[in-house]
Amino acid sequence: MGTETFGARLRALRKAHGVTVPQLAQAAGVGKVTIWECERGEVAYPRMDTLILLADTLGVTLDELVGRAR
């Protein structure tokens, strides 16, 4: 994994898809606070079920979402 934090990666992917935090939260079925906390680095990683919802909503793999290089 690179030096980019999960929060920075999530923010970059969200912005690349042109959605706001409230829009992503609603589409993924997760709380806005969860996304804000992740993006600010208050949560290193959310629960696995939340990661899956975010990845599916953003159309990326879990590896891409967490910045895991192969």
Q: How would you characterize the overall build of this protein?
A:
The protein has 70 residues and is mostly helical. The protein is 61% helix and 0% strand. It has 5 helices and no strands. The protein has helices spanning 6-16, 21-28, 32-39, 48-58, 62-66. It starts with 5 loop residues before the first helix and ends with a helix. The relative contact order is 0.22.
Please tag this protein with its features:
70 residues, mainly alpha, globular
DSSP helix fraction: 55-70%
Shape: globular
Strand content: under 5%
Radius of gyration: 11 Å
Summarize the main sheet: none
Based on DSSP secondary structure assignment, what is the total number of beta strands?
0
Cα distance, first to last residue? 9 Å
Q: Overall pLDDT, averaged?
A: 93
